[in-house]
Amino acid sequence: MVKYCGYLVSDSWLKQRALDVGHPPAKTPEDTSNMILLGSRDVMARTGVLPYTSFRRVKTPKGKYFWCIAFACNDPWEQLATNVPPEEKYKALKEALGREGPPRWYRAI
């Protein structure tokens, strides 16, 4: 089972981020997908984690689906680290997302 280590982000948070940086409101499902991608790229770029993270869909232990900005993965084909990085690598993202503690592991879908 593939697992990712990162921070969870909801669709609504990512869409709001896209609106905050000037993307027009979604009118179609394709617009919504573009907003989610734009929101994720913006926060990853502004916090400096874009070069060494991936954006993946995951499932929590309670069965809820979220996006994950992932720093590590247990699948070597993903070309991510296999362990949680040092805090200086994720601190800016953690603060931008308003999270406490290090990234956590979640199951890929």
Question: What does this entry look like structurally?
Answer:
The chain is built from 3 helices and 4 strands. The protein is of the alpha+beta class and 109 residues long. It has a 4-stranded antiparallel beta barrel. It is globular and about 40 Å long. The model has no long low-confidence stretch (mean pLDDT 97).
Q: Which H/E pattern describes the elements?
A: EHHEEHE
Number of folding domains? 1
Radius of gyration: 14 Å
Kindly report the oligomeric state of this protein: single chain
Mass-distribution shape: globular
Q: Strand content of the residues, in percent?
A: 15-25%
**Spans with pLDDT under 50 lasting ≥5 residues?**
none
Number of extended strands: 4
Helix tally equals 3
Average pLDDT:
97
What is the helix fraction of residues, given as a range? 25-40%
CA distance, first residue to last residue: 9 Å
User: Biggest sheet, in brief?
Assistant: 4 strands, antiparallel, barrel
What is the strand arrangement across the widest sheet? 1-3-2-4
Structural class: alpha+beta
